[in-house]
Design a protein that fits this description.
mainly alpha, two-stranded antiparallel sheet, 2 strands, about 45% helix
Length: about 110
Amino acid sequence: MNERVTPAPAMHALPDGEAEVALVLRLPWEDVARLGQEAGRLAAQTQRPVTLDEAVSHRLRSARAASHARPAGEQPPAVVPATGPASVSSLPARPPAEQARQAIDRINGTA
């Protein structure tokens, strides 16, 4: 049996009025590298270490704030229908081990 059975995501109320939801995501290595870059930018701004979890939360909050900041009556950008499978990266397909190595190199700044 290869199927993973995972319980529903745990949700916790936080003292600051927010909620915390634990999720497991499968991401391409390129997306993980981008999150690492986002964590690096956020760490430079806050002058402290930042986890990937914090970087994701920051990115989601920023996107939400930007969507709420539209002037009244302004429509969101039109969605262009995809003609093929959606892709985050336009990079050619590479073996997973090579993707991982290159993503780690980018995160470490050695690419």
